Amino acid sequence: MRQTLELLQPAQTEARSRAVQRVLLYANELYRVPTEYRLLRVVSGRALVTHNARDMILGAGYEARLHVGRDVALVSPLRGEPVVMELASAG
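RE: above sequence
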């Protein structure tokens, strides 16, 4: 019997295929997202994201689009738990 092994690539979402930076925030930290990033995706934990005079609560697997030419986004963890997020630029 002949067998071959192949490396299978996991399916990639649009956010994961463009991931540029991964950030880990601990409880009571505040992160200012640089203006060149256009997509913020929470990988684990829950985060409070303030952007464009709006507050959003994002859980793992959720993402927020950051608008061009608007204010920077501020991110902080909720529930005293760490948050892992991915930041992606346009394109």
